[in-house]
Specification:
The chain is of the alpha+beta class and about 70 residues long. Helix content is about 25%, strand content about 20%. The protein has a domain of about 50 residues.
């Protein structure tokens, strides 16, 4: 068994939490953060089962995630 790591972004959109895998573009949702994360894990597993070649696109290391601040005129 090989373990992969994927960066998950979870945002509230209306009544749902939408979860996305940054590396694969897989997206799902759930009524809670925990359910969205669980659904994303399952969706990524299914994606990788259906597309074995995509297994190489996931890093075994988590990328650095940071924020930036931008000011605009107006």
């Amino acid at each position: 068994m090989i373990h992969y790591k994927s960066t998950a972004i979870i945002q509230k959109e209306g009544k749902w939490f939408v979860a996305r895998s940054l590396e694969l573009g897989v997206t799902t949702q759930g009524r809670t953060i925990e359910k969205a994360k669980e659904n994303l894990r399952e969706a990524v597993e299914l994606y990788l089962e259906d597309m074995p070649a995509n297994k190489n696109t996931l890093s075994k290391e988590i990328p650095l995630i940071t924020s930036i601040e931008v000011s605009t005129r107006g």
